[in-house]
Amino acid sequence: MMRIVEHRDETPTTKTMVFDEGMRATSGQFVMVWVPGVDEFPMSVSYSGERLGITYQVIGEGTSALAARQVGDRIGVRGPYGKGFAIRGKRLLVVGGGLGMAPLGLFVEEAAEHGAKLDIVLGARTSGELLFEERCARTGSKVHISTDDGTKGLKGFATELAATILERDRFECVYTCGPEKMIVGLLGIADKKGIPMQASLERIMKCGIGVCDSCALDGRHVCRDGPVFSERDLRSFSDLGKTKLDTCGRKTAV
């Protein structure tokens, strides 16, 4: 059980919760968060080291209960689990869509500390929902913005902006997290350019250790074999961007 020491708004729909204890986790890994009397669910690690932090959107019963917790309250946290991002090269492109920046914000800091030069594409529906823009800029990275409604940066999708940047500059690897259809589109662009890619996928996770099968994807478990996968794995997933399992184990459209 960890005590909450900070609970702040990042955007109108996104909050960050920081705990009194640290955890050795790499970017892309996740923890299982238990709100007593409500539910347990996975959360990407957005801050690591001396203080563990998670960043989330309020979208259902579990996250609504989490949002109601105050500084000083305690919730259950176990982990970290899964495979995170691996730094490959010194010239990197990072593409985050919406809440996908939760694990990528930590990755940007890790890669910058290792001497990598990064270009970052931040995408969101509107300017008020852009996540970790200042955090990324503080690393010295070049930040590019796209919004669906054109309230800041390019009016359009993150994949469009990423495609333009990939045409202009050379990169050794692409890193992404966000809507699955965005990941599929970016994979096609990276493949055409012959650039390796790593993507963090989201699936329903009930156990976090590869037992319950709720996150199964083409014979793999996102919680254990991922959530970060290489471009080779991503190309092999026939369900990627098409279907996923719901809470009852039925296939539903992504």
Mind explaining what this structure looks like?
The chain is an alpha/beta fold and 254 residues long. It has two domains: 2-81, Elongation Factor Tu (Ef-tu), domain 3 (Beta Barrel); 91-253, Rossmann fold (3-Layer(aba) Sandwich). The protein is built from seven helices and 17 strands. It has helices spanning 61-67, 101-113, 133-137, 158-168, 180-193, 222-225, 231-236; strands at 2-11, 14-19, 30-35, 39-47, 53-57, 74-81, 91-97, 117-124, 142-147, 154-155, 173-177, 197-200, 216-217, 220-221, 228-230, 243-245, 251-253. The protein has a seven-stranded mixed sheet, sandwiched between helices. A six-stranded antiparallel beta barrel has the order 1-2-5-4-3-6. It is globular and about 50 Å long. The relative contact order is 0.14.
Order of helices and strands: EEEEEHEEHEHEEHEHEEEHEHEE
Number of domains: 2
CATH superfamily descriptor of the largest domain: Nucleotide-binding domain of ferredoxin-NADP reductase (FNR) module
Largest sheet: 7 strands, mixed
In round numbers, the mean pLDDT is: 95
In the CATH hierarchy, the architecture of the largest domain is 3-Layer(aba) Sandwich
> Can you tell me the CATH class of the largest domain?
Alpha Beta
Oligomerization state: single chain
What is the first-to-last residue Cα distance? 34 Å
Stretches with pLDDT under 50, minimum 5 residues: none
The count of DSSP E runs of length 2 or more, i.e. the number of strands, is 17
Class from secondary-structure proportions: alpha/beta
Query: What's the CATH topology label of the largest domain?
Result: Rossmann fold
Percentage of helical residues?
Answer: 10-25%
- Helical run tally: 7
What gross morphology would you assign? globular
Provide the gyration radius in Å.
17 Å
**Beta-strand level of the residues, as a percent range?**
35-45%
Strand adjacency order, main sheet = 10-9-8-7-11-12-15
